[in-house]
Write a structure and sequence with these properties.
Elements: H1 3-9, E1 26-35, E2 38-48, E3 53-57, H2 64-72, E4 79-84, E5 87-88, E6 100-102, H3 114-124, H4 129-142, H5 158-170, E7 176-180, H6 188-205, E8 208-213, H7 216-222, E9 225-230, E10 233-238, H8 240-245, H9 250-255, E11 260-269, E12 272-277, E13 282-287, E14 297-302, E15 307-311, E16 317-324, E17 328-335, E18 338-345, E19 358-363, E20 368-372
Length: about 375
């Protein structure tokens, strides 16, 4: 369903279901959505706790927006169940689910003032007069727009319009707030500012939030947990720290932050696993839980900050290029046919690595993982 159709549905005579007593626990059980022969969402299951802030993260075509539209009731699942507080809502129309929704393009009514836009869902629920005015005033204060109630959307900046859309979605205290790339149209500085403000608002109102984004930094900085989707399938659902430090798949490891991948040979013995990186001439002793490949070969994954470089004229690795960023230096190193990116802290008085310099390469074994060779 398009945004215009969704907004038109709000004008129907049917009153939205009451949100009173709803806690906002969301369960997605084996949800699949097909469009012809294409599986946009493929057997995805999620369990989201009341008051949790969850990000759906993925690139274009990952299925994240389709999943959100099914939660909103604008698309019907091909199979599987969606539950709110344990009650199946597959057959409840979107305009009766009582969820707050914020779109990327704001979807404000241009002919209405800011206050009228925010009051709209209250009027749909039978609230008017001083009661509605009081709630609108609270909502304007919540999003730092006190005194803007009489303005039209066309008189606001993009960031201010998005705040109005957020206030309208929260004014009736929904158990669940759905946000579809709401900050995507804003510049970087304003986007970062609103990220922090949305987190503060979430703490204050306590609604469950499901937030769609393609921006990994945005997802990691805002969400309690992140669901990473790729080609319709759930790759991992966990805390930002889990995703960064303990990625479950090579895709997640590569998608979240920066990652180096090296061909590795695996030798198992007892509780530990010996992993050699032939290109570097290194042998690492890893825990079993670090090795996710069941074969005798795999891909050794290590983030740039866990690669150690030391100047050594007799070493075989060569610095190709570097970038100074103030507190760190990013260094591109060539070892045989392999290129690695290292990120080293900058210390006063210590010289920076230079192009053409020979360096010895070491890895922090505790911060590596080994994935199956085929990614």
């Amino acid at each position: 369903m398009t945004i215009i159709a969704a907004m038109t549905a709000e004008h129907s005579a049917t009153t939205p279901l009451s949100t009173e007593g709803k806690r906002g626990a969301v369960s997605v059980d084996a949800i699949t959505k097909t469009f012809g022969s294409v599986k946009a969402v493929d057997n995805v299951s999620l369990s989201i706790q009341p008051g949790e802030f969850v990000a759906l993260l993925g690139s274009s075509g990952s299925g994240k927006s389709t999943l959100l539209m099914m939660l909103a009731g604008f698309e019907a699942p091909s199979s599987g169940d969606i539950k709110l507080d344990g009650v199946r809502i597959n057959d409840v129309p979107g305009h009766r689910r009582g969820f707050g929704i914020v779109f990327q393009n704001y979807a404000l009514f241009p002919q209405m003032t800011v206050a009228e836009n925010i009051a709209y869902p209250l009027r749909r629920r039978g609230m008017s007069g001083r009661d509605a005015e009081r709630e609108v005033t609270k909502a304007l204060k919540l999003v730092a727009l006190d005194g803007y109630g009489a303005r039209l959307p066309s008189q606001l900046s993009g960031g201010q319009q998005q705040r109005v859309a957020l206030a309208r979605a929260l004014v009736f205290r929904p158990p669940l707030l759905l946000m579809d790339e709401p900050l995507g149209a804003l510049d970087r500085k304003l986007r970062q500012q609103l990220q922090m403000e949305i987190k503060l608002i979430h703490k204050e109102v306590g609604s469950t939030i499901i937030f769609v984004t393609h921006d990994q930094e945005e997802a990691l900085s805002m969400a309690d947990r992140v669901a990473v989707l790729e080609r319709g399938r759930l790759q991992q659902f966990g805390s930002p720290r889990d995703l960064y430090e303990e990625p479950a798949t090579a895709f997640v490891a590569d998608f979240i932050g920066e990652m180096n991948f090296l061909p590795a040979v695996i030798r198992r013995s007892g509780q530990n696993v010996g992993v050699s990186a032939p290109d570097l001439g290194l042998l690492l002793d890893l825990r079993k839980d670090q090795v996710l490949s069941q074969e005798d070969r795999g891909l050794l994954a290590v983030r740039p900050e866990f690669i150690r470089l030391e100047a050594d004229d007799a070493a075989t690795a060569t610095v190709l290029e570097s970038a100074y960023t103030g507190t760190n230096q990013s260094v591109l190193v060539q070892v045989g046919g392999l290129r690695l990116t290292a990120r080293t802290p900058v210390h006063p008085g210590r010289p920076l690595f230079q192009s053409g310099q020979r360096v010895r390469v070491a890895l922090e074994a505790a911060h590596t993982r080994v994935f199956p060779a085929a990614r």
